[in-house]
Amino acid sequence: MAEVPRMSPTTPRRGLRTRVAATSVRARILSVVVVLAALSLVAAGLTAHSLQMRIVDARISADLRASYSEFQHLATEGRDPATGDAFTSPRALVRATMQLKVPARNEGMIGFVDDKLAFTAAETTALRLEDDAELLAALTTPGRETQSHVRSLTTDRTTYTYLVIPVVLSASQETGAIIRAYDRNAELATLRRTYATFALVGLGSLLGVAAVGWILAGRLLRPVRELDKAARAIGDGTELARRIPVTSGDDLGRLTVTVNGMLDRLEEAFASQRQLLDDVGHELRTPVTIVRGHLELMDPDDPDDVRAARDVALAELARSSRLLDDLMVLATSSRPDFVTPEPVDLGRLTDDLHDTLRGLADRRWRVDARADAVVALDAQRVTQAVAQLAANAVRHTADGDEIALGSRLTTDDDGTTVAEVFVRDTGPGIPAEERARVLERFARGPGAHEHRDGAGLGLAIVQAIAHAHGGTLVVDDAPGGGALLTLRLPAPGAATHPTDPDTPGS
Questions:
Q1: Rounded distance, CA 95 to CA 244, Å?
Q2: What SUPFAM superfamilies does the annotation carry (predicted)?
Q3: CATH number, domain with residue 121
Q4: In this structure, are 310 and 351 located in the same domain?
């Protein structure tokens, strides 16, 4: 017989968490707001109700004590209406008090003589104390009370707050008592009706809060819903260019700006990935075809033919290796850690570049200008970019032509300090209509057919390095002819101390 699986003790709790997690944020926010508002209304209502009940009880007690003071005044200063003399018997005093005192609403009064009910309130009095047997049973010997104080008694009919006033006169052997009582429940009935109205108004307010809260929560969470839609679309790969509209300047607005920035980087990453795959597929197809063709046509028995095929394969593999290195640089150029700016002495970097690059070819190398300043940049990436520019200048110049390096600090129209590192040559230059195209990947400038060692990625790499620094690459004509390519990199806070340019010979 198969064993019936037992339910884990954590199953209900897990199911509750699952249901809560499945509830929309809008519903959860609204639930919290409504619950808090309801708790606040209940707390305020109960507190106010308790205070009002205390006020009612205090008013009843004060009125009863005041009646005791009035009785004492009548007993000591008053006159018996029947004789005109001072009161000599408790019966007469009880009768006079019952006749002179008119009970308030929800108040009743009875009089005792020798612990027997002797007088009742006028017929117009609504609260008939004599009709409550439990109350009368509790008042067994009212005339023998020694002190008068407010008491409380609950019977089947109601709850009473009452005062026993003993009536004892030294000139008489009789004893008397006056009982004044309030129907506490009746006194509180008006208060209960008031708070029943308060409860209805509070319920209506909660419904209003729920309706308004639902609308406001929907508006406030609209960016989150847009974010969800955008994330789903991006996950499907259908709307990489979608952005969330920024509708406010609060936390959600700032979150929207942050997410839009993240989407920009994601779109760039996807575009870079596609571009890398397209570039690799396009550029590596040619060397693979060349190597395969030579290997298929090679005569394995002919040493010369084997050596020739080997040389072609090694040359194509070397070119493919350089191509892959360049493509990897471009693929990683959008990463935040592609450049690591540090304070660099721009003048010393210019001299170091001159000393390093002058060995590329037999040209007249010189330094046109040197910026004696400390600038925050990635010296390794800038060296890589300037080396590409210098190699490009070498390919488009002949022996004895001039190639100049330089650096300087300039200020844009908006007051931003910019560090410029440039390479100038006396070659044929780049026509104005070709300047935008030569910055694209695998684009070749005029005369590039004469140089087969490049893949057309050099200037694209230089531009990627400039963009990673927040700058740009500017292609222009050099004074006197030739090309002038300038890296313009933002340099806020750079200290400017210009010196005379050094012009070393070639």
A1: 89
A2: ATPase domain of HSP90 chaperone/DNA topoisomerase II/histidine kinase, HAMP domain-like, Homodimeric domain of signal transducing histidine kinase
A3: 3.30.450
A4: no
- Regarding whether 319 and 446 lie in a shared domain, the answer is no
DSSP code, position 245: P
Q: Please tell me the number of Cα atoms within 13 Å of 36 on its side-chain side.
A: 8
Judge contact between 160 and 183, C-beta under 8 A.
Answer: yes
- From residue 325, how far is each of 313, 389, 468 by CA, in Å? 18, 17, 18
357 and 291 in one domain? no
- What secondary structure letter does DSSP report for 403? E
Of 475, 493, 472, 471, which Cα lies nearest the Cα of 484? 475
CATH number of the CATH domain containing 302: 1.10.287
- Which of 137, 171, 190 is at the close of a domain? 190
Residue type, 6: R
Rounded CA Rg of the chain: 51
Same-domain pairing of 370 and 478: yes
Q: In terms of residue numbers, what domain contains 114?
A: 51-190
Q: Phi first, then psi: what are they for 113, rounded to 5°?
A: -130, 125
Contacts of 160 (CB under 8 A, 6+ apart): 135, 152, 153, 154, 181, 182, 183, 184
Of 447, 442, 484, 490, the C-alpha closest to 466 is 490
Number of continuous H segments (helices) and E segments (strands) in the chain: 11, 12
> Are 121 and 257 in the same domain?
no
- Are 461 and 425 in the same domain? yes
Structural domains of the chain, count: 3
Which token pair is 494?
A: 């750079």
Question: CA-CA distance, 255 to 227, in Å (whole number)?
Answer: 10
Give the tens place of pLDDT for each residue, 392-441. Answer: 899 889 988 999 999 999 988 888 899 999 999 998 888 888 877 777 76
163/153 Cα distance (integer angstroms) = 11
Residue 374: Cβ-neighbour burial (10 angstroms; 0-12, 13-18, 19+): middle
| DSSP labels, 466-499 | HHHTT-EEEEEEPTTSSEEEEEEEE-TTPPP---
Question: For residue 405, what are the β-bridge partners?
Answer: 367, 423
Residue 469 tokens, joined: 């620094």
DSSP state of 438: G
Is the pTM value of this prediction over 0.85? no
Residue range 18-39, pLDDT digits in tens: 454 445 778 888 888 889 989 9
89 and 139 housed in the same domain: yes
